[in-house]
Design brief:
The chain is mostly helical. It is built from two helices and no strands. The radius of gyration is 31 Å and the shape is elongated.
Length: about 80
């Protein structure tokens, strides 16, 4: 008969593991170098400008394709005898 291996290391329960993870997370956050407020404002402005630019471009392309579709569907006599 095979003997059971009782030397197995048990995992701590879920609450102990969650506590360790939270402790590690907070200790890691203490080491983070946070950007200054002017850097945050500058980066936010850059993101907003890029988003607005792409919104205008995509809207213009959408409008152009919509008008093209209207022109194509309004042509009479295609495929008719």
């Amino acid at each position: 008969m095979a003997q059971k291996n009782d030397n197995k290391v048990k995992k701590p329960n879920i609450f102990v593991r969650m506590g360790r993870k939270l402790k590690e997370t907070f200790s890691e956050l203490k080491r983070v170098t946070w950007p200054s407020f002017p850097k945050v404002v500058k980066a936010t402005c850059v993101v907003l400008v890029v988003v607005v630019t792409f919104t205008v471009i995509v809207t213009a392309i959408n409008y152009g394709l919509n008008e093209l579709l209207k022109v194509i569907t309004s042509i009479k006599g295609i495929g008719e005898n």
